[in-house]
Amino acid sequence: MSVADQAPRFASPVDHRMWSERIPAPWWILGLILLLLPIVANNFWLFQIMGWTFILGMIGLSLMFLAGYGGMVSLLQMSIAGLAGYMVAILGPSGAANVSLGLSWWIVLPAAFLIAALFATICGALAVRTDGIYTIMITLAIAAAFFYFTRQNYSIFNGYSGFNLVLPPKLFGVNWRDPLPFYYLTLACAALCYGAVVYLARSPFGLALQGVRDNPRRMAALGFNVTAHRVAAYALASVFASTGGILLVWQNAQIAPGTIGISSAIDVLVVAVVGGMRRPLGPFIGAFIYVLLQVFSTDILGFFGFSADRFKLIIGIGFLAIVLFSPDGVLGLWDRWRARMAARKAATTGGGA
Amino acid sequence: MNAPVVSSRMNVPGAGNASSGNALELRGITKMFGALAAISDVTLSVKPGERRAVLGSNGAGKTTLFNCITGDFLPTAGLVRFFGEDVTVFPPHERIRRGLRRTYQISSLFTGLSVMDNIYLACCGVSRNRFSLVRPRPDDALLQAAEILVEAVHLTADKDRLVGELAYGQQRQLEVALALSGAPRFVLFDEPAAGLSPTERADLVTILTSLPAHIGFIIIEHDMDVALRVADSVTMMHNGRIFKEGRSDEIESDPEVQELYLGGGHAHH
Ligand SMILES: Nc1ncnc2c1ncn2[C@@H]1O[C@H](COP(=O)(O)OP(=O)(O)OP(=O)(O)O)[C@@H](O)[C@H]1O
Ligand SMILES: [Mg+2]
Questions:
Q1: Predicted local confidence at residue A7, as pLDDT
Q2: Which atom, in ligand 1's list, is nearest to the CA of B66?
Q3: Which of A11-25, B58-72, B235-249 has the highest mean pLDDT?
Q4: Residue A214 Cα, gap to closest chain B Cα (Å)
């Protein structure tokens, strides 16, 4: 089954309700929990688990935007995130003072987003001429090429060792790498990216992207330049990936070729598929599951006497199970469970009447 | 029903060339599929505002002709001019932005979107808004244009339904609406009446005959009644070639045509 079959569906483009009325109650509860989480959660949970979840979720979100709305499965999103992260390290200050330029953050951040967007646009222009499996292959090839390039290039990417001591700027006197500020920083970025994708899906561009996914020939017959639309989607998706990539560098305080290796590229796909590519929430769910498994598999596996390396095996089996049993990911399972509950409820009330 | 179906608000690129003769001009169009010549050496011209019916048996090459005009296929040989401009190698969207429109013989709609979304998309496609990242406000000009179109094809009651849930006839009506978005100057209708009930057919004829006079079209139609009621002139195709052209009344009374096409249905028996 193709991604297109599980496309998100919406009501009319104009919703007359106030924005606050449009958000269903579970969302308010989730928002409240996330906002108040620091009261109960320790630093490890805030920084390692939640911070990483949001970051991985944003990179997965950029893939969800391309694949779910555009029908383009790109394995490039980690490279784009990594490039933005690298740019922060290269243009800004880092431990590798001989390579890093040490510019101030208000030049570094826009430049990082722009360069990553440019890279995404060029790669997108190459990738959109292909379809299905070939898109996956060409984006994987570019990701691999970029990985080896960063490993071998010392003048810009500082080769194998990469960059360490890449720290966020101390804006407003806050050390943004402290667990509490970092948690709220990543939460805010994730919420913004999520909101942006939800909003964009109903904009003319987003609607047209879904049209291009479902019926490119008809879109051309309506006056749309299908190729331009797809390339623009790559550029737009790069914003979410770059946000994740920059936060990732700050979280680790370092970036090296290993960050953008092939396995990381595939992890992004796993995250998006496990969570569900139908909706923007999917990648965040997928990222949460992935991070929990990654962090706690050592303990669980150790308890049963296995080596911690088996973590990838668990992820792999989980991935297989999801792909086989729920092509819409965990969110798809949730949907089906709700549908079944609704049906059962209808049956019991119908029987009672 | 006689609400203005089509707005002329938008500027159409290339509109300046309109003075020079024909809306559509085909010279020696040939399209080969491997060894099969689906159409061969078709030369045809249609004046602005003219309404032409194309008749012909199954496989005569009518749809292929449309595909060459819209750029869905590039012709193997020949020249396509649209309002004086050589568009032979233009991609489809460039032709659409110049005021060409088409419908498909087999409905080609966005079944996962609502009726309104389908038409709104069509309106975006021919406007500068197509890349807009901003959601439309309720008073958005394109949304209003879409509302007018929804009404023009009598789908107002179903405008929020998913297109996949519509009845066949309604989908055909939507197909027509998509071809009337923006400021069309010339429309290609590929068997819009096929499979419609008599009432729906009558409805379609009203929609077509009440189009603004400056909009010309070509309609492929097997139903001679529909074709002759909406068209001023007729082109008959057979085996990928044009074998007869003329005013509707001439064609209707032409004995050869009656023999070949109308068979017994009209005059004999
Ligand atoms: N994409 C294609 N590839 C190969 N052959 C094609 C293609 N499209 C059409 N043909 C062939 O070209 C010829 C003309 O087909 P076309 O669809 O233009 O006929 P038509 O006049 O529209 O017929 P109908 O009344 O059945 O719609 C047919 O023999 C058809 O099989
Ligand atoms: Mg046909």
A1: 40
A2: 18
A3: B58-72
A4: 7
Q: Sheet containing B100-102: which strands, arranged edge to edge?
A: B100-102, B186-190, B216-220, B51-56, B233-238, B241-247
B64 lines ligand 1 (CB under 6 A): yes
CA B30 – CA B25 distance, rounded (Å):
14
CA B198, distance to chain mean position in Å, is 20
Phi, psi (deg, nearest 5) at residue A94: -155, 180
Using the atom order of ligand 1, give the atom closest to the CA of residue B67: 18
**What is the pTM assigned to this prediction?**
0.86
Q: What is the mean pLDDT of residues A305-315?
A: 72
Residue type, A188: A
Is the Cβ atom of B105 under 6 angstroms away from ligand 1? yes
DSSP lists the bridge partners of residue B235 as B54, B245
Instruction: Name B142's Cβ contacts closer than 8 Å, sequence gap at least 6.
Output: A204, B120, B123, B124, B127, B129, B136
Question: A201 and A213 in contact (C-beta within 8 Å)?
Answer: no
Q: Give how far A79 is from chain B: nearest CA, Å.
A: 25
Distance CA A339, CA B7 (A): 44
User: What is the distance between the alpha carbons of residues A110 and B91, in angstroms, rounded to a whole number?
Assistant: 35
- Cβ pair B33, B41 in contact under 8 A: no
Give the separation between CA B184 and CA A47, rounded to whole angstroms.
Answer: 57
Residues 6+ apart with CB under 8 A from B204: B172, B173, B176, B192, B193, B196, B226
Q: Kindly state the greatest CA–CA separation across chain B.
A: 63
Instruction: Note the pLDDT of residue A321.
Output: 80
How close is the Cα of B70 to the center of ligand 1, in Å?
A: 15
Residue B239 Cβ inside 6 Å of ligand 1? The answer reads: no
B26 pairs with which residues across the strands? B44, B80
C-alpha pair distances (Å), A7 with each of A1, A214, B115: 12, 9, 17
N-to-C CA span, chain B:
38
Task: Judge whether A217 is closer than 8 Å to chain B, CB to CB.
Answer: yes
Tell me the C-alpha distance between A182 and A249, whole Å: 12
pLDDT for res A9:
44
**pLDDT tens readout for residues B214-264:** 999 999 998 888 888 899 999 989 899 998 888 877 877 777 777 666 554
In sequence order, the 6+-apart residues with CB closer than 8 A to the CB of A159 are A150, A151, A152, A153, A257
Q: What is the residue-averaged pLDDT of chain A?
A: 85
The C-alpha R_g of chain B, in whole angstroms, comes to 18
CB-based contact B73:A217 (threshold 8 Å) = no
ipTM score for this prediction: 0.85
Helix axes B115-125, A204-214, angle to 10 degrees: 100
pLDDT in tens, B141-172: 898 899 999 998 889 999 889 998 999 999 99
Which residues, other chains included, contact A329 with Cβ-Cβ below 8 Å and sequence gap of 6+? A272, A273, A274, A275, A276, A277, A278, A282, A285, A286, A322
A40 vs B: CB within 8 A: no
Q: What DSSP string runs through A196-207?
A: HHHHHHTSHHHH
Separation between Cα atoms, residue A168 and residue A166, nearest integer Å: 7
- Contact of B110 with B118, CB cutoff 8 Å: yes
